[in-house]
User: What shape does this take?
Amino acid sequence: MASQNRKPLIALSACVREIGIHPFHVVGEKYITAVRDGSGGFPFLLPSLAEATEPAAVLARVDGLLFTGSPSNVEPHLFGGPPSAEGTHHDAQRDATTLPLIRHAVAAGVPLLCICRGFQELNVALGGTLHQAVHEVPGRRDHREDKSQPRDVQYAPVHSLDLAPGGVLAALWPEREVAVNSLHAQGIDQPAPGLRLEATASDGQIEALSGAETAGFCLGIQWHPEWKVRDSAFSMAIFTAFGDAARERARRHTKN
Assistant: This one.
């Protein structure tokens, strides 16, 4: 029997990338570090094996799931959108892995934290839609990072969030507003049924949703709290809450 003090097992969604002439399944170190330092969990990579992934088998072994950000966009045909602009990077293997897994995880009440692309996957998996280029939507700001700048500048806070009263994030943070970074082109259009508004940017762009009708922790966020997680009290609060939910699931697993 596993120790009652074991770290919760947190699976991180992987992207499929070609490095040289070979495909690799990869996860950014910042997500791995944030799970370790922010959630107190044991992070491991979940390969994007598409239809070969059995959601029930994965969920039986994990205590939480972190769906990561990525340079790739969700394929637009999955949410009824028009074809992507030329040059847009996609990851069909990841789509085929994450979307069914999210649906099964929500139904099973497995703790979920979904960041950037992961947030968009959560919305699409449950029936929502996306803007493929938020900066082209009338009235919206350009939410993309300046890639000519150093990483610390790209990940610095650039706009404020308005936290919805009564939500998951409002319960974690004492103030109505908080500043966050912004590194995305694609974003939420219509929220999926069953997801509750958690936060918006000043231009009205949806920045966070939660699973109002789910049995477990389910939070999707557009910004990147994983970046230097220990340097931000707000980011630490998010990862700690996710870790607490995963620890509770691990405790139940141990009892069984």
Remarks:
- Helices lie at 29-39, 55-59, 92-108, 117-125, 151-154, 168-172, 233-255.
- The longest strand covers residues 195-201.
